Amino acid sequence: MGYKPITKKQDTRYKQISNSKFKIPKLVIGICFLVIAWFLLLVSWSFAQTAFDPLAIGVGARALGMGKAYVAVAENSDTIFNNPAGLGEIDAFEFTSMSGSLLEEVQYTVLGGVYPLGERSAIGIGYAAAAVTAIDIRDTAGTLLQRSNFGNSVLLASYGRKLSEKVSLGINLKFFSQDGNELNDAYGSGMNIDVGFLQKGLGWLSFGLVGQNLLSSGKIHYRSGQEEDLPLSIKIGTRMFLMGEEFESAILSPLELTAVADADLSLQSAKPTTTHLGLEFSPNHFLTLRGGMDQDPQPNGIQNNFTFGVSLNFAGIGFHYAYHPYGNFANNATSYFSLSLDERGWPLDGFPETFFSRKQPPILQI
Q: In which domain, by residue range, is 186 found?
């Protein structure tokens, strides 16, 4: 996001934005949407035991750094896992990967890629796995008998399409697998779908909605004959472009600042409704800073986890880092690392001019 001289058109926008008649209606719309969404989602539904979905950990260091608020962001190849409707906005090949050691024991790995089918649709493939290795199995006397491994994984086949300039829809077909190499009854598999909606082009606001594991028949089936439901949930989110040069930001500026807010409603378990909040600040194209709050359900209530992250981007390659604590124990904090690739970053035209190192226009001498 390099610095650009203010054009006559942009100067006119400054005058428009400074007019309260322009600012107040959009601000009221944004506040009303958040209040209504919050009210509708402060509800708990029926109670049932559900299987573990690896995607519940969160996908993408960018999303995790913003408290897992990403439903209305839905950008880059991370959108495969967070809102498949975002695929309709992608018109170039993209790749993402992420790794982290959750609670120092659970190895978490994510891979994903997007291939565009034109300017209005794209397909994606994603994989996420959480595994614990070398689990000690001991007898009542404490003697080590053997070591075991246990893991969950999900493979996603995604499709998203842009239906109009403002609306996109997407779908995920998900294949779940559970593996316990020393416990025969722990082997299980299942299938389900996600459906996503994304609306952009509403000035400085965008909205997203995702229904996860919508098939009631989509369960995890175990070798023992038992079965478990997959967690049915609804995620709703909004994104506000507070400052920037694009997306008709509320304040025209060479700096970019966005705010995001999501809410998760569990429709099939005793989990309380949780919210996710985040801010993202970019002084230039190369550097992005972010922070957020991720609410995590606990047996005795809700735990607020404050997160932060940073991204470095150059020539279509992005290095992303997120720090996410879990509870009040320092040993439970996890660092996540993501690597992303966007083919639109090539060929490189050189370093763009940034806000902090902009050049003054030449002075004409007569």
A: 8-357
